[in-house]
Amino acid sequence: MEKSCQCARKKKRSEAEEKSLLNRLHRIEGQVRGLEKMIGEDAYCVDILLQVSAVREALNSFSRLLLEEHINSCVVQDLQAGKKEAAEELVMLLRKMR
């Protein structure tokens, strides 16, 4: 069985969802720029590591939000349409996200 190229798949997001996701990414981008500034200013290692931890948690939060939306929209719609491979794809994704 030939696997289809998934690179062409897209999802139309609501304006509110897109704005929320982009706002989170912009905040994360600012946090990463803050890390760069801390390095340039010779900040103490512990302070930098704490900021790295905050960035990691912000990315995890972003991922959880996106995963929740994916399950509630894409996965549900695919399963309702009889596309059982959506469940397999979700399981594979969860394994990779550890």
SS element count, helices? 3
Largest sheet: none
SSE run:
HHH
Distance between the termini: 28 Å
Give me the count of strands: 0
C-alpha geometry? elongated
Helix content: over 70%
Low-confidence stretches: 1-5
- How much of the sequence lies in strands comes to under 5%
Mean pLDDT: 92
Radius of gyration, in angstroms, nearest whole number = 18 Å
Query: What structural class do helix, strand and pairing data support?
Result: mainly alpha
Description:
By secondary structure, the protein is mostly helical. The chain has a domain at 44-98. It is 76% helix and 0% strand. The protein has helices at residues 15-40, 45-80, 85-96. The radius of gyration is 18 Å and the shape is elongated. The model is unreliable at 1-5 (pLDDT under 50).
Q: Quick recap of the structure?
A:
By secondary structure, the chain is mainly α. It has helices at residues 15-40, 45-80, 85-96. Helix 1 packs antiparallel against helix 2.
Topology diagram in text:
Elements (H helix, E strand, L loop, with lengths): L14 H26 L4 H36 L4 H12 L2
Q: Any descriptors?
A:
76% helix, disordered N terminus, 98 residues
